[in-house]
Design goal:
The chain is mainly alpha-helical and 128 residues long. The chain has one domain (11-104). Helix content is 66%, strand content 8%. The chain contains 2 helices and 2 strands; from the N terminus they run βααβ. It has helices spanning 11-47, 51-97, and strands at 2-6, 100-104. It has a two-stranded antiparallel sheet. α1 (11-47) runs antiparallel to α2. The longest helix has 47 residues, at 51-97. It is elongated and about 110 Å long.
Amino acid sequence: MAEMTIKRFGVFSVAKMYGLLMFVFGLIIGVLYGLIFIIMGASMASLAPRDEATIGGLGTIGVGVGMMIGIPIFYGVLGFIGGIIGALIYNALAGVVGGVKFELQAVQQDYAPPPPPNQWAPHQQAAR
C-alpha cells in the first residue's frame, strides 16, 4: 500500500467539477419545483371562473418554466464560485496542515503477462 497526500488542487478543475455537480442538483430541484408550479398554474387557469385568475394561472405556469431553466443555471454558477473558493481555501490550509492523506492499494491482475517477442532472423537459403 502506498500512502499519498493531496497537497494542492487545481482551482479551476475543482470549480468546473463542482459547478457541473451543482448544475445537475439544480436541474433535479428545478424540474421538481417547476412541475409543481406548472400543475398549480394549470389547475388555477382551468378552474378559474374569471379572467384574472386565468391570467394568474398562466403567470404561474411561466414561473414554473422559468424555474426549470433558472434554478440549474443559478446552482451551477454558485457551485462554480463555491468550487473556486473551496479549492483556494484548501490549497492555503494544506500548506499549514499538510493536506489530506490517503492510502492506495495495488489491484491484483488476473492475467499473465504476454510472452516475450521472438527474435526475427532472415530466412537463409542453402547454397547451391
